[in-house]
Design goal:
globular, 6 helices, 24% helix, 232 residues, six-stranded mixed beta sheet, alpha+beta
Length: 232
């Protein structure tokens, strides 16, 4: 599991800005901090994953539903993320809670970044970032399901194991919306033991986008936020 964040740790936004424009004070902190070293490694791994993929694909194995998302992963796309978040308060804690409780979806790209409410309308070109608050160390997948029941894998973008999270955390990387319209349900799947992506995908595949009670994943708990893609 990742080392715990301390009160001396820079915010995720500060760490991202350090990757864009190296800051000596932040670099000195990272040298002696296991948590921030883990964050930096995760950013490097995300950057490598992005570099191996076409900008509008998250995984070569599932091209059809994944056309709907364009990943922006640190550090390969941190510049775009920084432009979205540079003038916003650090999203380490939600500015207001969504009904997902343990999942907050941040929307940016057109106007000030905001925490999504249930059923909020989002437009093409807006970017999404994801914060989870599992309350304890956990393994996390972030995925989405559209109106057809097709599943898109969002975080982590590749590999066979979920992301290890300890406490409230804004996850590395983001996704940019394309022009596809209709409802889209974002899922955070959290477990004390790592679940394979195939287990999560099978549980979400074909699930009714407007009825989250239909989803049950043994050994995991879920949190979800519904978005409406397209102009209101």
């Amino acid at each position: 599991m990742n080392a715990a964040r301390t009160s001396q740790c820079p915010s995720d936004l500060t760490l991202e800005e350090h990757l864009l424009r190296p800051n000596p004070a932040t670099a000195r902190h990272i040298t002696g901090c296991a948590h921030c070293q883990s964050w930096e490694r995760a950013a490097a791994e995300a950057s490598g994953a992005f570099a191996r993929q076409h900008p509008r694909w998250m995984a070569k194995a599932r091209p059809s539903p994944l056309r709907r998302w364009a990943p922006l992963l640190a550090t390969a796309a941190l510049a775009a993320v920084a432009l979205v978040l540079l003038h916003a308060p650090s999203p380490e804690l939600p500015r207001y809670a969504t009904k997902g409780d343990e999942l907050t979806v941040y929307i940016g790209g057109q106007g000030a970044p905001r925490a999504a409410t249930q059923g909020e309308h989002v437009r093409p070109g807006e970017s999404l970032r994801f914060q989870v608050a599992p309350g304890a160390a956990a393994f996390v997948w972030i995925a989405s399901v559209d109106a057809t029941g097709a599943v898109s894998r969002l975080v982590p973008a590749e590999g066979t194991t979920p992301l290890a999270v300890d406490g409230t955390q804004v996850l590395p990387g983001s996704a940019v919306l394309d022009a596809t319209e209709g409802p889209e349900r974002i899922w955070a799947v959290m477990s004390s033991e790592p679940l394979g992506w195939s287990v999560v995908e099978q549980a979400l595949q074909g699930s009714p986008v407007r009825d989250p009670t239909a989803v049950h994943i043994p050994g995991a708990r879920t949190s979800t936020v519904l978005l409406e893609r397209g102009a209101p």
